[in-house]
């Protein structure tokens, strides 16, 4: 079953980001069209290059964190071994304090490596929305489909051929309104070459064969060109293309091209994770999460292969392009950070962290401070915060106690007289008659 995504995706976060990426994709499509290249697949690759360059500063930040981990990891492993098997609350708190001390000593935080990933998540989801439903975001592409919609005769929604095409793509039901232009374009974008042939061959749509663009080319032929990448319709799933071949439709070359998309998506992602791990510190196999990380490095590429069979081919092309670009970037970063003096990196990181600490009124960290000294300082700070909290609680309890004694004075606690006295003394305290 094909996943249907109608028009643009809303939302206060994804919506604006997807719109910005739509403008970028539209610019790339216009530039390649002026060069005589009418192809969305090529635009997706160029689009991926642009977005990866925009995200490159976050990638560098992640690599710096990984480089610091190469120095921190032995200390973190020692802490994990020290408290291995200890699950009491005191041991868990001490383990967390000592772990935080190690991060603080090197001018970073436990969330330092996660923050770039959190920032990238909405960006990546917005990218998928644009690529999955390109006409909704790329106005230059939508223009071709709009020409077709404008040429459709009145009442085309009830035509048997049109209804059959809608059913083939599961676009039926009360929620599907083909009186809306965007909904019709969503369907047209998903048609195969064979289905376009059925639409143009129908006597109900005679104008489609005569409909041309500004360059004099037939609109349907233009749509074929812009959706075709290496013989594969980017709006269609590889699985459907392969099944069509076994049903006697399409050539073996197109089927092999469709098959190569999920395979290449999985292989490039696997190699990307391998080269990324090569630039990171070796992790203790007994450390928590180490085994799961190894499994994820195998499972994620396999999942990519599975999903690419059922997603539009354009998504698979994007995944392949993204992995290839990440491999190139990671190779360059690994070579660069191999030459970086780790002490200089730590010193810069601590200086940056100390500026933030100064704003919070905290003393600066020193590069050569021992872990035990850092832990001691953290414990002293936590003890002072705990003392302040306990003092505040003690004051609150004293106020409550004083108030209770005042209201219960001269009467047995809980009696009717004590309650009446409480009301009277409350009025006295507040100057009421």
Enumerate how many helices there are, as a single number: 18
Write down the overall geometry.
Answer: elongated
**What share of residues are in beta strands?**
under 5%
Largest sheet: 2 strands, antiparallel
Distance between the termini: 78 Å
The helix content is over 70%
Q: Assign the structural class, choosing from mainly alpha, mainly beta, alpha/beta, alpha+beta, or little secondary structure.
A: mainly alpha
Identify low-pLDDT runs.
1-6
Write a concise synopsis of the structure shown:
This protein has helices at residues 14-34, 40-54, 56-82, 89-105, 114-132, 134-137, 139-151, 160-168, 181-189, 193-201, 219-227, 238-246, 252-278, 290-310, 313-338, 342-359, 371-408, 416-429; strands at 228-229, 232-233. The protein has 433 residues and is mostly helical.
Keywords:
mainly alpha, two-stranded antiparallel ribbon, disordered N terminus
Can you walk me through this structure?
- The chain is an all-alpha fold.
- The protein has a domain at 371-429.
- Helix content is 70%, strand content 1%.
- It has 18 helices and two strands.
- A two-stranded antiparallel sheet has the order 1-2.
- Helix 1 (14-34) packs across helix 5 and helix 3 (56-82) crosses helix 4.
- The protein starts with 13 loop residues before the first helix and ends with a helix.
- The model is unreliable at 1-6 (pLDDT under 50).
């Amino acid at each position: 079953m094909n996943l249907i995504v109608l028009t643009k995706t809303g939302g206060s976060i994804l919506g604006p980001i997807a719109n910005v990426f739509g403008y970028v994709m539209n610019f790339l499509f216009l530039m390649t069209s002026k060069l005589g290249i009418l192809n969305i697949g090529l635009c997706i690759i160029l689009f991926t290059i642009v977005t990866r360059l925009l995200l490159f500063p976050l990638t560098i930040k992640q690599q710096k964190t990984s480089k610091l981990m190469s120095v921190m990891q032995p200390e973190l492993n020692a802490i994990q071994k020290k408290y291995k098997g200890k699950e009491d609350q005191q041991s868990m708190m001490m383990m967390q304090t000592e772990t935080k001390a190690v991060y603080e000593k090197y001018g970073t935080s436990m969330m330092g490596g996660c923050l770039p990933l959190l920032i990238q998540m909405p960006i990546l989801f917005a990218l998928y929305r644009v690529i999955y439903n390109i006409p909704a975001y790329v106005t230059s592409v939508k223009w071709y489909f709009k020409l077709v919609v404008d040429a459709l005769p009145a009442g085309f929604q009830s035509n048997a051929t049109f209804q059959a095409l809608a059913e083939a793509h599961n676009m039926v039901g009360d929620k599907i309104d083909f009186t809306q232009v965007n909904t019709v374009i969503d369907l047209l974008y998903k048609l195969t070459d064979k289905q376009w042939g059925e639409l143009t061959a129908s006597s109900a749509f005679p104008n489609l064969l005569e409909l041309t663009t500004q360059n004099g080319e037939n609109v349907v032929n233009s749509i074929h060109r812009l959706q075709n990448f290496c013989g594969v319709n980017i709006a269609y799933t590889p699985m459907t293309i392969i099944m069509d071949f076994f049903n006697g439709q399409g050539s073996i070359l197109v089927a092999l091209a469709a098959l190569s998309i999920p395979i290449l998506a999985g292989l490039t992602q696997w190699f990307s994770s391998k080269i990324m791990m090569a630039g990171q510190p070796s992790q203790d196999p007994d450390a928590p999460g180490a085994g799961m990380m190894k499994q994820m490095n195998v499972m994620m590429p396999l999942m990519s292969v599975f999903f690419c069979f059922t997603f539009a081919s354009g998504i698979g092309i994007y995944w392949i392009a993204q992995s290839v670009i990440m491999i190139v970037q990671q190779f360059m970063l690994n070579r660069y950070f191999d030459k970086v003096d780790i002490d200089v990196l730590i010193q810069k990181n601590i200086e940056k962290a100390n500026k933030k600490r100064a704003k919070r009124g905290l003393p600066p960290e020193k590069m050569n401070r021992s872990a035990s000294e850092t832990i001691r300082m953290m414990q002293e700070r936590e003890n002072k915060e705990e003392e302040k909290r306990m003092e505040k609680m003690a004051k609150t309890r004293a106020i409550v106690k004083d108030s209770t004694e005042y209201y219960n004075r001269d009467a047995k606690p809980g009696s009717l007289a004590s309650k009446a006295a409480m009301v009277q003394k409350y009025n006295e305290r507040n100057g009421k008659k």
